[in-house]
Amino acid sequence: MKYISTRGADSASGPEAIVRGLASDGGLFCPSSFPALTPELLDMLGKLPYYKRAAFVLGMFLGGASPRDGFSDGELEGFAEQAYAPFDGGAQRAAPVTELDGQISLLELWHGPTAAFKDMALRMLPFLMTAGARKIGADKRICILTATSGDTGKAALAGFKDVGGTAVFVFYPRDGVSAVQRLQMVTQGGGNVGVCAINGNFDDAQTGVKRIFADRALAEAADGAGWMLSSANSINPGRLLPQVAYYISAYCDMAASGRLKKGAPLDIAVPTGNFGNILAAYYAREMGLPLGRLVCASNKNDVLTVFLRDGVYDRRRELSLTTSPSMDILVSSNFERALYHLSGGDADMIRDLMRRLSDDGIYTVSGGLRSAFAECFTGGSCDDAGAARVIRETWDERDILLDPHTAVAVDVARRNLTGNPMLVVSTASPFKFCEAVLDALAADGPFAAELDENGADARFDPMQRLSALTGLMPPRPLLGLAGRPGRFTDSVDPSDMPSRITL
Ligand SMILES: *Cc1c(COP(=O)(O)O)cnc(C)c1O
C-alpha cells in the first residue's frame, strides 16, 4: 500500500510514512486505497482476541510484498501482543464494549497505562516506528515532537520512554490541561524525554510544532547531530491506523452479544478534537464495516459543528477553555485527511483550502464536497453545563461515571439517534478530570452535603474525594500522582519552543 500526501507532492511506503510522520510538502500521508473488509473476514475476526484483530487490521494497511515495504503478520501480532499487554483486560480484551442504556453502548478505550484512548495507538507506535526505521534503512535516531491537548503527551512519553534510538519532546498549553493530566506529564521518568509548558493554547503548541518541522535550518542541525524529526501526533498515519481496529472489534463484539444484528448498520459518536479518532471510524466505514452515521461531537469550540452544518470552516474566534480540554482545538489537523478522501484526492483544492485557512482563517467548500460530508457525518456540540448534566444523570440513574469528553459525546449522540444502535466512544477515565466530575456531581446532586464537609479542606486530594464519593477505584497508574515531585516545571513562549529540543 502506498501512502500519498494530501497536498499531492509526496508519497511513501507504510513504514516510511510512519517513520517520517509528516509529508515533505506539509501534507498528511493517506492510504491510497481502502482494503476491503468482507462479511467473511468480519466473522473470522470476531473469533479472535483483541490484539489479533488489531494485528490483522494493521496488516491490511501496512503489510508489504517485501520486508522493506511493509510489516509481516508475525511482526504485527508480536507488536500488538506486547503493546496491549499492560491494559486492564490484557491484550485479549483491551477495548471492551459496555452498555449505557437500551440504545447506546460505550466503547471503553481508556484501560491502558495512561487512562485515555491515546494509549490504543501510542502503545503501538514505538514498535511501528523503530521497526519501520530498520526496514527503510534509516540510520538516524528519531526525535519525536508532540503537541498535546492533555492526553497525547503522557501516552507518547509512556510509549517512547527509554526506547532505544528515540527521544520524545512534549509541549502542552500551560493553562489548558487538567491537574491530573499535568501531573502525569511533569512527573514522567526516563532518560530520553522532555516536557515543556507553553504560554499559549493547544493551537499555538500545534502550530509551533508544525513550524519546527518546516524549519530547514533546524532539520539540518538535527541531521548533523544524527537525528531526524518525526511526530507522535495523529498527523502520523501510525497513530491513525491502530485506531481503525477498535471500531471493527467493537462491531464484532456487539454482533456477538446480540446488541447488533450481524450486517446491520451501527451509528458511532466520537468526542472530537483533532478529528483523528472519528477519521479512523470513517476509514473502517470505507473498508466496508456496516457503519451508519458518524456523529462528530464537539464542546463549546464547535468549529466542526458549524462546518458540518454550513460548509464553512472558520477558526477566527477565541479558543474557549472547557471541562473537556482534550477537545479544546480550533484547527483540527486530521480534517485535512477527511477533505482529501471525500474530494476524491483533490490535492490542488486541499492546498488552496489550507492556504486560505492559514492566511484568512476561513474557507468554504463546494456543494459537492458538502454533500459528501453530509452523506456520513453529523455534527453537534454540548457545552460544559450540558456535559455536567449528563455526568450527573448517568451516575444517578445508571451508576456509570463518565468523563467530560465522553459526556459531550453522549449528549450529542442522544440528540442524533436514528433508530440504529449507537456506539459512543468513551475516551478517558473520569479520574483524569476529577475537579470537573466532582463539580458535575455536586450541583444540587446527592453529594452536595459530603462535598461541603470536605470542600474546605485543601489537603483533601480531589482524586481521593471522587473515589470516596463514588466508591470507584481510580485506575492504578493514576494512584500516588498527587505526592510526586515534578521534573519538568518551566514554561516558554511558543516562539522559544525550538530551544527546548535538546539532542
Ligand atoms: C484526544 C482526545 C479526544 C479527541 O480526539 P481526536 O482524535 O483528537 O479527535 C477526545 N477525548 C479525549 C479524552 C482525548 O484525549
Textual characterization of the structure:
- The protein is 44% helix and 15% strand.
- It has helices at residues 14-20, 39-46, 50-62, 73-84, 118-122, 125-135, 151-160, 179-186, 202-214, 216-224, 237-257, 276-287, 303-310, 335-342, 347-359, 367-376, 384-398, 404-414, 434-442, 448-455, 462-470, and strands at 2-5, 11-13, 29-31, 97-99, 104-108, 141-147, 166-173, 193-198, 227-231, 266-271, 291-298, 312-314, 362-364, 377-381, 422-426, 491-492.
- The chain is globular.
- α3 packs across α11 and α17 crosses α18.
- It has 503 residues and is of the alpha/beta class.
- It is built from 21 helices and 16 strands.
- β4 (97-99) and β5 (104-108) form a beta hairpin.
- Pyridoxal-5'-phosphate binds next to α12.
Architecture blueprint of SSEs:
Blueprint: E1 2-5, E2 11-13, H1 14-20, E3 29-31, H2 39-46, H3 50-62, H4 73-84, E4 97-99, E5 104-108, H5 118-122, H6 125-135, E6 141-147, H7 151-160, E7 166-173, H8 179-186, E8 193-198, H9 202-214, H10 216-224, E9 227-231, H11 237-257, E10 266-271, H12 276-287, E11 291-298, H13 303-310, E12 312-314, H14 335-342, H15 347-359, E13 362-364, H16 367-376, E14 377-381, H17 384-398, H18 404-414, E15 422-426, H19 434-442, H20 448-455, H21 462-470, E16 491-492
Parallel strand pairs: 5-15, 6-7, 6-9, 7-8, 8-16, 10-11, 10-15, 11-14
Antiparallel strand pairs: 1-2, 1-3, 4-5, 12-13
Helix pairs in contact: 1-6, 2-11, 3-4, 3-11, 11-12, 17-18, 17-19, 19-21
The chain binds pyridoxal-5'-phosphate.
Pyridoxal-5'-phosphate (PLP) binds next to α12.
